[in-house]
Amino acid sequence: MKKNRPHKFGTFLGVYTPSILTILGLVMYLRFGWVVGNAGLINTIAIVLMASSITFITGLSASAIATNIKVGVGGEYFMISRSLGLEPGGAIGIPLYLCRTLSVTFYCYGLSEAILILWPEGSSVLPKYALQILTIIFIILVTALSGKSAKLVLKSQIPIMIIVGTSILALIIGVITQDMHAPINNASYQTAPEGFWYVFAVFFPAVTGFTAGIGLSGDLKDPQKSIPKGTLNAVVSGAVIYLIIPLLLAITAVLTLEEMADPEAGVTIWTRIAVFGPWLVYPAVWGAVLSSAFGSILGGPRILQALSMDGLMPKFLSKLSTSGQPTIATWISGLLAIAAVFLGGLNTIAQYVSVLFLTLYVAINVSAAVEQLIKEPSYRPKINVPWYVSLLGAFAAMVVMWLINPLAFAFALGLEIVIFTYLMNKKLEQQWGDASTGIWMHVSRYALLRLSAKKMHPRNWRPIIILFIHQIKDNLPLVKFTEMLGQNSGLLTISRLILITDKEELDKRNEIVFEMQQDLKAEGLQALTEVNVVSDFKLGMNLIAASHGIAGIKTNTVVFGWSQSHKGKLQELQIIQDLASSGKNILVGYIPKSFSKKTNKRIDIWWRGQDRNGDLMLLLAYLIGLNSKWSKTVVNIFSITHSEKEKTVMEDHIKYSINEARIDANIHVFTKDKNETLETLIHKSKKADLVFTGLARNNDNFEARVQLIDTIVTQLKAVVFVQNNGMKNETPIIFRNN
Questions:
Q1: Torsion angle in degrees (nearest 10) through CA of 310, 313, 319, 320
Q2: What span, in angstroms and rounded, lies between the C-alpha atoms of 670 and 683?
């Protein structure tokens, strides 16, 4: 069966109409008279201008983001997640979806109240739970219509817009055809003793709702064009109308300011002033509320659909009907809205919803400001908003949140922090780039430039390591050992070399890097990964190791795993010989799978006193001891001398070294017996979990060295051969304190 293509909307029907109708909603009819009655004309105009400025700045920020990316389904959530990242987007998007869904309940509840208020008092025909029943009927109605066709819902808003416009025109005619007086500017605050900012907080929800059109981003023909035009025009239109209405109310003689300030007056202020009052105003109120409900039930499911598509919600929620509507998400939203009818205390919940909704304003403005600040080359919006303007909008929105309800403000931030933390811990996969990468690039750039301008002091030394392996999974023990050396202060890069002639691996090198990261993530390890293309393994490894790093984080340590083939062992020693002059420390590790399984750890260091290898080995043992699993490690230092005099000198040297380094170790200095062999000496470390020993340099007899290393490796649990090429002529780094 051929599916119908979903209908796409233009600027007027898809963005402007739902936005302006949500702005010109229930608050305009219920609270404008109360605001003028308490604050007077001048203060009311100030309130309108300030509130509209916040929404206008937010509209500009949203427009800037929308003109820079191809906006998909999800509206505000889509823009925030593609700008700040998946986790911040989810932290805003999930509460935003709940707010939109609860808004359906509030609007349908308000519509039911507005209709039932006309019911004759004392009538016995009215059922006991008429308000709740009527509310549920309206929720089912708007859900069914929006689930069937967004086109039908949006077209139904045209007559509603006409009715609302007619009611405003009726108010104008009613004022100018009756007695008038000079504008009254007195601010009495007779029913708002808390003053100006309290009145501002009550009025502010009247200017919100301009994002209703943004919520339909996935249903627009050209979101990049329609969102800025429709949104900004709706905000400006609403502001102009909101400047006219208080002037009309301030000059009419039909009602006094005291009568308008009555919180119970509500919509009757309009019905008493406007020509054909009740006949035009009540239908307009009902239409405005119904339109707002439609806007919420259209926007909410599309946020849920987008969350599902991004993996933050079950996948079935993103399924579309044959007409292209997110029907499942719509009916689930409708059921949640019906459930909210039975919550009770909806007025209190409404404040929390308003504040949560305002966090959206904060996020949109912060997104635009961050994009401007980090200056990503890809950020080229058609509408440029200075970063400080967007930040001003974000700050103003937070102030309004505080004014509406400080407790709700704290709750909203707390809820979003909890969601953000939860999503971060899930380690979600993001399929797009975002501004967070640009932020880290800026931080990294600043840090690198600062490091580059400083002379690196030995006390600031830390292991900046490059490890050459082919497959992480096949070398996990070596990877874990090398990562332990960093202890969150060093830096490990794992490099895989591929030949330039290997076309298959060349084409997949980005996938290989990603797979390497996935392998690390599965083991809870952190390291940089890279694939380097070389024409020859030996030459390539030399060049990469010698030049690896940047500025103040140049690689200072190169790690190899001891090869399993004889040819590989010879090649490895040749590479190490060539690297010795580069100033890089070199570690060659034999780390089997059984490494680090015991709880009582022992590290042995074989200290010969040559080339300062002992200093580096002592430092490496200390770094491993920082790991929680190795916190109770016993360190033994072994040294072989040829006479009693040498023995005394070596003992004093080692004692001095470990005292200066403030490292605990047991010292064992032996005088070599003529009959003792290498195997006999190595036997002393057979029970050690890890052994460090020196790696000789300037020895071209590679065959003999391979045989020697193999002899040592076969008799020990785990061994690392250390060659100190980085601090030969310096005081050992671990003893430097100033």
A1: -80
A2: 14
Residues 319 and 317: their CA atoms lie apart, in Å, by 6
- Does 63 or 452 have the greater pLDDT score? 63
Report d(CA 54, CA 63) in Å as an integer. Answer: 14
Please provide residue 374's backbone torsions phi and psi, each rounded to the nearest 5 degrees: -80, -15
Is 454-735 the same fold as 11-425? no
| Contact status, residue 44 vs residue 183, Cβ threshold 8 Å | no
How is residue 372 written in tokens?
Answer: 């401007």
Amino acid 45: pLDDT: 95
pLDDT band for 737, please (50, 70, 90 cuts): very low
- Is this structure's pTM higher than 0.85? no
Angle at 11 between CA 108 and CA 152, to 5 degrees: 45
Q: Identify the three-state secondary structure at position 438.
A: helix
User: In this structure, what are the phi and psi dihedrals at residue 156, rounded to the nearest 5 degrees?
Assistant: -70, -15
In the three-class reduction of DSSP (H, G, I as helix; E, B as strand; rest coil), residue 596 is classed as: coil
- Cβ atoms of 170 and 275 within 8 Å: the answer is yes
In DSSP terms, which residues pair with 608 in a beta bridge? none
d(CA 89, CA 360): 10
Q: How far are the Cα atoms of 462, 464, 617, 623 from residue 628, in angstroms, in the given order?
A: 19, 21, 19, 11
- For the chain, the 3-state helix, strand and coil shares in percent, each to the nearest 5, are 60, 10, 30
Q: How far apart are CA 380 and CA 14, in angstroms?
A: 25
Name which of 475, 502, 661 is nearest 559 in CA terms. 475
Q: Which amino acid is residue 85, in one-letter code?
A: G
Give the DSSP letter string of 244-294.
Answer: HHHHHHHHBSSS-HHHHT-TTTTTHHHHHHSTTHHHHHHHHHHHHHHHHHH
Going by C-alpha positions, the residue among 15, 22, 25, 16 that lies closest to residue 75 is: 15
The CATH code belonging to domain 454-735 is: 3.40.50.12370
Instruction: Give the contacts of 684 (CB within 8 A, at least 6 positions apart).
Output: 604, 638, 668
CB 177 within 8 A of CB 276: no
pLDDT at 430: 72
The domain segmentation of the chain, as residue ranges, is 11-425, 454-735
pLDDT digits (tens, 9 = 90+) for 553-606: 888 899 999 988 888 888 888 888 888 888 889 999 999 887 766 556 889 998
Helices (H), 15-85: 17-23, 26-66, 76-84
Q: Which two tokens stand for residue 484?
A: 């332990």
**Amino acid identity, position 188:** S
CB 733 within 8 A of CB 594: no
Fold topology of 11-425: Amino acid/polyamine transporter I (1.20.1740)
Q: Is the pLDDT of residue 730 over 70?
A: no
Query: Do 68 and 381 meet the contact criterion of CB atoms below 8 Å apart?
Result: yes
